[in-house]
Amino acid sequence: MISRVISAIEIICLVIAIYFAIRWVNEPTGDFEPMLAFCSILIVALDFIRRIIRSSELRVFLSVGATYTKAQETYVKTFERFLSESKCKRLVVGRDCPSARQPILQVRDLMQKADAVVILAFTRYDVKSATEKPNADRPNHKSIEIKNVRYPTVWNQIEAAIAFGMKIPLLIIVEEGLKQEAMLKDRNEFRTIETTIDPEFFESEAFKSRFNDFVKISRKRSWFRFC
Predict the structure, then answer these.
(1) Where are the beta strands (DSSP E) in the chain?
(2) pLDDT tens digits, residue range 153-189?
(3) pTM above threshold 0.85
(4) At CA 76, angle to CA 208 and CA 184, rounded to 5?
(5) d(Cα 207, Cα 193) in Å, to the nearest integer?
(6) DSSP-assigned states of every residue in 126-158
(7) How far apart are CA 166 and CA 159, in angstroms?
(8) CA distances (Å), 9 to each of 45, 50, 196, in order?
(9) CA–CA gap between residue 59 and residue 109 (Å, rounded)
């Protein structure tokens, strides 16, 4: 709310500055410099205040699939509470405010507002037996049997890729034993964290230390965002 008020005042100051700049062009002998200088200083000061307010509460896009076990729900709620305690505002598609719009559009809109992205990946598919490249008969290709492999929701991959493409700080937390491929591999700027579905993990000093480092870097970068 405060940020919106500040933005509105900035727009008003800009309009006033443009008005006096036009008058100055038409009346070169007029004494318009003090007003233009005042508007410029006020706009810079308001922008500085807005950035301070913004960085005080980091906006974190949380990529998390629908929970289907009590353990998963407790795990996710514990992390959401941890975010709140860390002065982070969560942005979650569909979890709090279901929309009639396509999910991918909601993802895009929320990502544009986010200062950081956290991926919480846990089991969605438990593949007991499958085949990769079935009936492969071309050179350098062969069929591969897949047994007892667990995969997360594909939305974790999609949202991680969007965050990476938008150069938003990205932290990935995956369930232990989950298939790590594509964007969920330990190849991003911040090391991938692997853990069991245990809410107490978020209270560990090891996790807090890594998360605080992630937040610190994300806050610094949020100062240079224009929205």
Answers:
(1) 58-64, 88-91, 116-121, 125-132, 144-151, 170-175, 193-195
(2) 999 999 999 999 999 999 999 999 999 888 888 777 7
(3) no
(4) 75
(5) 9
(6) EEEEEEESTT--STT---EEEEEEEE--HHHHH
(7) 11
(8) 11, 11, 48
(9) 13
